[in-house]
Amino acid sequence: MKIKPVMSLNMKNKNQEPKTKNQDERSRVQEIRNKSQELRLKTKEPKLKHQGTNLLSWFLVLGSWFFTLFFLLSCTASERNLNPQDKEQANRYYELGLANLRERDSQGALFNFQKALAMDPKNPSIYNGIGLVYLTREEFILAEQNFKKALSLDNSLGDVHNNLGSTLAAQRKTEEAMKHFREAIKNPNYPTPENVYYNMGLIALDIKDYDQASLYFNQAIKVRATFSPAYFQLGRISAYRGSKDLAISYYLQALRFNPAFGEAKLALGITYMEEGKNKLAREKLQQIIDEEPFSPLAAQVRGLLKSLPQ
What we know:
75% of the residues lie in helices and 0% in strands. It is an all-alpha fold.
């Protein structure tokens, strides 16, 4: 079974800050300018008799000017990097990247996240966004690299631990994945722990540890009672165990909280077929064709409907 974990998309830019001025940097620049002025005053000496000594003085003056200019430029660059306007612009690009991700425009998302990163290169949320782009493309190595970079900047981010765990789980690196899922759960400020419990349940389900998987899925529902994917997976476990009526109940719950859940409709339709409830099966399967006529699910359903007795 291919593991399809739930990803976490942090909507808040970790490094977004209120507008402030870096007074320490400005003071340092002013101090350097004052020293430069003092240096200019000290070098205004009477002309010396020997031309060689006069040339040496000029070289010293020029050298001091270049040295001062170097530090002034360095301080100005530092101020520019910390400029709140740059952070605001980076945040705008970050928000555009999030919007692209929601619209499944991975190319646009990557473009905007990279723009944001150029302006704010130590922002873990941006690396998380880039990692999500690669995860949706199933480019797992690049996704893993970006999630790990985000955690190197801030190891407390539950959403990044979940996303890295999802990436590792998709590569069958289950022990390492579970380690990051547990790290995400530890964070009391992580807003969607149900995603982590669900992903842990998928790993248990993949190795057919139905008892442990059920515990994780029920924990996800305990956190969020309307979490339809967990009901769907509990339905699958019930079907594997031969409890068809219980499976139907779980599928109906999943559809109650997410009426557009195509996989739940398909599973429910198949279970109705197995129970000989052909009319109910046809109605539920036909809904998939009516709502998603060009989807892969619809193609699968058409084949089922042909084999379904009238």
